[in-house]
Amino acid sequence: MTTWTSDELQRIAAAEELELAPLRRDGTLRAPVPVWVVRDGDDLYVRSFRGTDGGWWRTARAGRAGHVRAGGVDKDVAFTDVRDDETNDRIDTAYRTKYGHYGGAYVDPMVASRATTLRLVPR
Questions:
Q1: What's one Pfam family here (predicted)?
Q2: Can you tell me the mean pLDDT for 102-106?
Q3: Residue 1 lies in a domain
Q4: Nearest CA to 116 among 80, 89, 90?
Q5: What is the chain's mean pLDDT, rounded?
Q6: pTM beyond cutoff 0.85
Q7: Mean pLDDT over residues 23-40, rounded?
Q8: Is residue 86 part of a domain?
Q9: CA 18 to chain centre
Q10: Inside any domain, residue 108
Q11: Considering its fold, how many domains does the chain have in total?
Q12: Backbone angles phi and psi of 64, in degrees to 5
């Protein structure tokens, strides 16, 4: 398993949105969608605004792989679930800190979507 470089982490974390294209079961990439991305330490995380009903999330969860682009970084990734409360607490804080200027109507659903937290792992 590879890791993010310091430069990649900084550039992606600084981007307002990440373009995420999950891999379908047939091996093709779904059309990219813009999602919010946050950093915690040396890891990057995304969540579905629509919770488990989000189409991109269901595809990402089923295929476990895809492609992301943000801040000039283009990377194939694997998606891993995040279930532990401690990590999700930090991710909640990261969403509130980075995107709080959008207000609760947008940030609250992201914080409430803890069950959809995916870690992006470079491939």
A1: DUF2255
A2: 93
A3: no
A4: 80
A5: 96
A6: yes
A7: 96
A8: yes
A9: 8
A10: yes
A11: 1
A12: 60, 15
